[in-house]
């Protein structure tokens, strides 16, 4: 099917050919989890509209697929009280458990989570328009992340199960939780990136309040029961509603110890400033990015085109790690553009459950208009849309637009588009992309494409002091999850990876005593009779 026909027929048939992922009825999330109880909500609900549209009369509208509770400040503060009671200043059941006991609870949760995979994957498609393949991958990657986190904690605990002797002092160093952690994930990876902070915070002994993303909330319906079954009351509480009503009041109490947020730096600044004791608030933030690619004249052209295509358009470019601006050496720009636009023309567009679909509808309200304004601004300053059908839209669908030549007068040169718009900047010398990276407000990643070892080495030595990951002949990306994921400038605060996240939500704490016989005898007695969870040399196998 050609692009024009696919665009014309978009949303005409919402039936899933396999019959597995159709939505026969609305998902009404009528409960919220507080202190181990699934409490029925009797108040106002927020309607959920899918990016997938259905025909109503002679026009199309976003399909209403469900609703979730619009909690108020009152319920939000009740949830906080539950979390504080569960943590009990570090003396609650959860923070006082052994590491093995917390791992057992997490493994119970994982088993429950696996039982509801089909529902979660279906709702990822309907709520945010992610393709079936990508939705399955998000679920599976999250499961792998949980398993890897458990193994990383075992390793960390084994390393901590020994005593250190230095300067006449005997000590044991372990990591202790902060307390109450507020977790807020993004809509583009509503399961994976929410759990990338929630799981390590939880397994290290913190109690967690988490607010599902504004887009990607209904998928958590069966997971509430999994949390309820796996963890003691109050250890995981879920708050629904508008941030101004439920998040602000939580932070303003000053009783949130750690904030895990993945979103924009503007929102993160607002959240941090609401806390009355900012120096006590430990933050782990994944924020904005404008990752560039630099394509040199000696690059493997086919490889560069395919990696840029993946980097710029995977999940419609709605990833913080997406390639969002492409610098191409001037003398190869025409050939690069020809190959890239031809490759885009081969991508299948359609609904999430269609086989091999690559470009799908966009979930954010007003996103189409925002992208159209970016394209129009670029055209007003001299750029052209160089691919067929580029920028054409139908309801919530936007066909990828390749802009060339892009310059610094254009908004798309500076702004994070977070969608299927690809700005290409021709350059004559390396000063142009290097200056861009130095002057940028963001410093997450960069991709460089070249076959010259000396040039690559020189660029790497310069770029590692500007960004936190340099990708050689490959797209920007987060994984594998054992690698650190962070950023400079306005792109991040703190580091996430399987091991780094365990450290991010804890603080090193030690027990120390002078190395004399009475103290050693006390420690021997504690160890022999297994009197303490902290002072212990037990090994988890």
Distance between the termini: 55 Å
- Which CATH top level class of the largest domain fits? Alpha Beta
Q: How many DSSP helices?
A: 18
Mean pLDDT: 95
Number of domains: 2
Portion of residues in helices?
Answer: 25-40%
Radius of gyration: 25 Å
Q: And the CATH topology of the largest domain?
A: Aldehyde Dehydrogenase, Chain A, domain 1
Describe this structure in words.
With 541 residues, the protein is of the alpha/beta class. It is built from 18 helices and 25 strands. 38% of the residues lie in helices and 22% in strands. Strands 15-18-19-14-13-21-22 form a 7-stranded mixed sheet, sandwiched between helices. The longest helix has 29 residues, at 132-160. The mean pLDDT is 95.
Structural descriptors:
541 residues; alpha/beta; Aldehyde Dehydrogenase, Chain A, domain 1; Aldehyde Dehydrogenase, Chain A, domain 2; 2 domains; seven-stranded mixed sheet; six-stranded mixed sheet
Strand and helix map with partners:
Layout: H1 3-9, E1 27-28, E2 31-34, E3 37-40, E4 45-56, E5 59-69, H2 73-87, H3 93-96, H4 99-115, H5 117-128, H6 132-160, E6 164-166, E7 169-177, E8 180-184, H7 192-203, E9 207-211, H8 221-230, E10 236-238, H9 243-252, E11 258-262, H10 265-273, E12 282-286, E13 291-295, H11 301-313, E14 323-329, H12 333-345, H13 367-380, E15 384-385, E16 393-394, E17 397-398, E18 401-404, H14 411-414, E19 421-427, H15 431-439, E20 442-443, E21 445-449, H16 453-463, E22 469-472, E23 488-489, E24 492-493, H17 498-504, E25 506-514, H18 517-528
Parallel strand pairs: 1-5, 8-9, 8-11, 9-10, 11-12, 13-14, 13-21, 14-19, 18-19, 21-22
Antiparallel strand pairs: 2-3, 4-5, 6-7, 7-25, 12-24, 15-18, 16-17, 20-23
Helix pairs in contact: 2-9, 4-6, 4-8, 5-6, 6-7, 7-17, 11-12
């Amino acid at each position: 099917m050609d692009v024009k026909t696919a665009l014309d027929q978009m949303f005409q048939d919402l039936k899933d050919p396999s019959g597995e992922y159709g939505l026969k009825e609305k998902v009404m999330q009528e409960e919220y989890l507080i202190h181990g109880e699934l409490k029925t909500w009797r108040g106002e609900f927020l309607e959920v509209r899918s990016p997938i549209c259905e025909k109503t009369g002679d026009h199309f509208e976003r399909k209403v697929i469900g609703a979730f509770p619009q909690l108020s400040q009152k319920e939000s503060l009740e949830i906080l009280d539950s979390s504080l009671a569960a943590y009990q200043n570090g003396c609650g059941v959860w923070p006082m458990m052994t590491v093995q006991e917390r791992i057992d609870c997490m493994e119970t949760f994982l088993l429950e989570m696996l039982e509801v995979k089909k529902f979660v994957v279906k709702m990822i498609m309907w709520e945010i328009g992610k393709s079936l393949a990508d939705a399955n991958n998000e679920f599976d990657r999250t499961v792998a992340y949980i398993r890897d986190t458990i193994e990383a904690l075992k390793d960390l605990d084994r390393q901590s199960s020994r005593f250190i002797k230095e300067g006449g002092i005997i000590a044991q160093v372990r990591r202790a939780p902060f307390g109450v952690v507020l977790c807020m994930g993004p809509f583009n990876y509503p399961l994976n990136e929410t759990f990338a902070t929630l799981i390590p915070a939880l397994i290290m002994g913190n109690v967690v309040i988490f607010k599902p993303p504004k887009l990607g909330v209904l998928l958590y319906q069966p997971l509430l029961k999994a949390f309820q079954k796996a963890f003691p009351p109050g250890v995981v509480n879920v708050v629904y509603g508008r941030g101004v009503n439920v998040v602000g009041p939580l932070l303003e109490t000053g009783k949130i110890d750690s904030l895990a947020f993945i979103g924009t730096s503007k929102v993160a600044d607002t959240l941090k400033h609401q806390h009355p004791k900012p120096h006590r608030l430990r933050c782990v933030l994944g924020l904005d990015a404008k990752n560039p690619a630099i394509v040199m004249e000696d690059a493997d052209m086919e490889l560069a085109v395919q990696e840029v295509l993946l980097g710029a358009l995977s999940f419609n470019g709605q990833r913080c790690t997406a390639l969002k601006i492409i610098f191409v050496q001037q003398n190869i720009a025409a050939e690069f553009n020809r190959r890239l636009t031809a490759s885009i023309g081969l991508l299948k567009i359609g609904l999430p459950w269609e086989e091999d679909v690559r470009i799908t509808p966009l979930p954010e309200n007003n996103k189409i208009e925002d992208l159209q304004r970016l394209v129009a601004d670029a055209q007003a300053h001299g750029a052209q849309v160089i691919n067929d059908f580029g920028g054409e839209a139908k309801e919530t669908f936007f066909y990828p637009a390749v802009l060339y030549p892009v310059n610094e007068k254009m908004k798309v040169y500076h702004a994070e588009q977070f969608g299927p718009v690809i700005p290409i900047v021709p350059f004559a010398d390396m000063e142009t992309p290097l200056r861009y990276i130095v002057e940028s407000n963001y410093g997450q990643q960069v991709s460089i494409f070249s076959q010259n070892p000396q040039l690559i080495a020189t660029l790497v030595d310069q770029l590692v002091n500007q960004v936190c990951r340099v990708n050689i002949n490959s797209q920007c990306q987060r994984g594998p999850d054992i690698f650190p994921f962070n950023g400079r400038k306005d792109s991040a605060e703190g580091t996430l990876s399987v091991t780094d996240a365990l450290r991010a939500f804890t603080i090193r704490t030690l027990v120390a005593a002078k190395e004399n016989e009475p103290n050693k005898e006390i420690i021997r007695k504690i160890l022999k009779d297994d009197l303490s969870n902290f002072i212990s040399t037990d090994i988890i196998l």
